[in-house]
Amino acid sequence: MKIRKCFSCGTYTFKQECPKCHSQTYYPKPPKFSLEDKYGKYRRKLKLVKRDEDRNR
What we know:
Blueprint: E1 4-6, E2 12-13, E3 25-26, H1 40-56
Antiparallel strand pairs: 1-2, 1-3
């Protein structure tokens, strides 16, 4: 059992769904460090998409 964090309100829980706002949760642990960084371009792209969504709200 691992601790999870809510995308919306930031609440920590052990459930896949937040008990406060009922949105999806994720593992707050960062990915392992690697010099090769195979998925770096995907993480950066996701970060830009999330930033654009936050600006449009």
